[in-house]
Amino acid sequence: MRKQTDLDHGPGPTIRPLALNVVAGGAGFIGSHLCRALLEKGESVLCLDNLQTSRASNLRALEGHPRFRFMRHDISQPLPAELTRMAPRITRVWNLACAASPPLYQQNPEHTMMTNVVGTNHLLHLAEAAKARFLLTSTSEVYGDPEIHPQAEDYRGHVSCTGPRACYDEGKRAAEALAFDYGRAGRTQVRVARIFNTYGPNMDPNDGRVVSNLICQALRGDELTIYGDGSQTRSFCYVSDMVAGLMALMEADIDGSDPVNLGNPDEMTVNELLGHVLALTGTAARVVHRPLPVDDPRRRRPDISRANEVLGWAPKVPLAEGLEATCAWFAAELAAAKPAAAGFAG
Amino acid sequence: MRKQTDLDHGPGPTIRPLALNVVAGGAGFIGSHLCRALLEKGESVLCLDNLQTSRASNLRALEGHPRFRFMRHDISQPLPAELTRMAPRITRVWNLACAASPPLYQQNPEHTMMTNVVGTNHLLHLAEAAKARFLLTSTSEVYGDPEIHPQAEDYRGHVSCTGPRACYDEGKRAAEALAFDYGRAGRTQVRVARIFNTYGPNMDPNDGRVVSNLICQALRGDELTIYGDGSQTRSFCYVSDMVAGLMALMEADIDGSDPVNLGNPDEMTVNELLGHVLALTGTAARVVHRPLPVDDPRRRRPDISRANEVLGWAPKVPLAEGLEATCAWFAAELAAAKPAAAGFAG
């Protein structure tokens, strides 16, 4: 992946790109879509990823793009000198880095916490040095198992800070606190998106989320797993809508502002989602029920009034359409004899 | 302060102390009382402190004690090799390190967050390497501006993770999350105390807490400052009671357990406290009102049922008695021509 691109040039004949984006977590599900959208917009992208839970194969289509570069790095560790030296040219810093599914982020809770807190701080330092704008992807998990519906941004949440999900939930809350402190002190311009459930191509088939779980189980003809009785609700946003929301938020003129929920307010039960997947895949596999994980939220629906008002944003892709695209992508992934990720040398 | 004591001896004729305590924040208000109590119990104490908001003068009485040693260090930085080499002899690690009053911890919110998260992680690593038991002093601030009264440990709190107090409140919540993750993974035995308002000798006269503010203003004949209308409530625990609670919690056989509130459930308004201070000092100074700080909690009272049940602990010192001792101490402090702290070379 390390090749001569216009990102590598010092002063010289190459036209300097107007916008250089650092996208931490850019090999992840949402991150890879964001990288592509920024390139399509004509900007340059430096993708930073440790490939812990993200997939280099997500970047296959971007490899070799003249305005794209990949740097393998774990943001919980001090940033590479090569990156910090590029600060004068960096205009935007996006933090999408952190394992986001409970089974994965709970494998090493200390690392999850450090990624969110120390990693965010490293990127805030970079943004400050670069005089770049900074966007943190926070999460609906900062609301925990919410007691009000839908969740607006001023809801303070219902999070257990002692349970097995706390490394992520509290890590993100701490990352928000850090970001807003940088903003208040005028150290850098900050934007905080609270991302609700998102789905689409490039999801990790094995990360244990309900959409990918059900689709992959259906496509493989495996039993379909429902945790609890399936009456818990979720709201699913298609990834292209999410990326449009993130880009609108980064560019919006709302300094010193509050966090902004991004997600699809179309709430449904997990059983309803199951119905869609069964219809779409035509699987005859049976459904098995397993116990709800500890602190699993019972309901989750974003109030997106603020995003609507300040960004003019709302999701556009209907669930049926998004699920169909997602199913098609998973079918192609599963059909591929071997994962292609191995060929990617970051 | 660096002198030959039994803490410095390697193998040799010196009798190895049965218990070596590392007390981070040991020069602080509660920390200094804890150090003294541990020494009085016959144990050894290695006090770790950056002297950021704590006062070396708090340790004056311990200086030269053969089982006491001071090491100046900021726990947000990697621990000194000299300390980590002592791990095999360390039996208890206490984390009382962090600026705790809003004006002070808000001076450098990034450092406050890093002290709580990275600092706690450094000490957890030390405890793990030492196979020592670890105690985190968390705070009633994890409940934020609570919506239920009194606050029991299973209340998830009402904290703003975006406001100016978040660096402390969310830092402590993240520190709790880390500690319980170490505990769940069997990496070290953890204890988490949620400390409510505490007062007594060795408080910093300038740290902006209501008890020290009012007493010092009264003793100096200054105007007495009440934030808001004074109807907000607090519950004040005398420091000797708090230290007894912390020591009971550290030694209690409650592995894998939950956090434990420590504080005095005797709730009063700030105006009632003011009445006590006026009566005790006989000041004729007038009272001025100032606006309530952002996110200032309106009510705060611990439910100490769990401490009662699992530790057999309850506070014993009545407010009148505690306030009298505190006033006497502040009077002596203010009378001293110059602060004596300068003489202490940590």
Automatic annotation (TrEMBL), chains A, B:
InterPro entries: Epimerase_deHydtase (IPR001509), NAD(P)-bd_dom_sf (IPR036291), UXS-like (IPR044516). Its main location: Golgi. It is found in: Golgi apparatus membrane; Golgi apparatus, Golgi stack membrane. Keywords: Decarboxylase, Glycoprotein, Golgi apparatus, Isomerase, Lyase, Membrane, NAD, Signal-anchor, Transmembrane, Transmembrane helix. GO terms for molecular function: NAD+ binding; UDP-glucose 4-epimerase activity; UDP-glucuronate decarboxylase activity. GO terms for biological process: D-xylose metabolic process; UDP-D-xylose biosynthetic process. Residues 22-263 form the NAD-dependent epimerase/dehydratase domain. The keyword Electron transport does not apply. Pfam families: Epimerase (PF01370). Its cofactor is NAD(+). It is an enzyme of class 5 (isomerase). Its EC number is 5.1.3.2. GO terms for cellular component: cytoplasm. It is a single-pass type II membrane protein. The keyword Transmembrane applies. This is UDP-glucose 4-epimerase. It comes from Paracoccus haematequi.
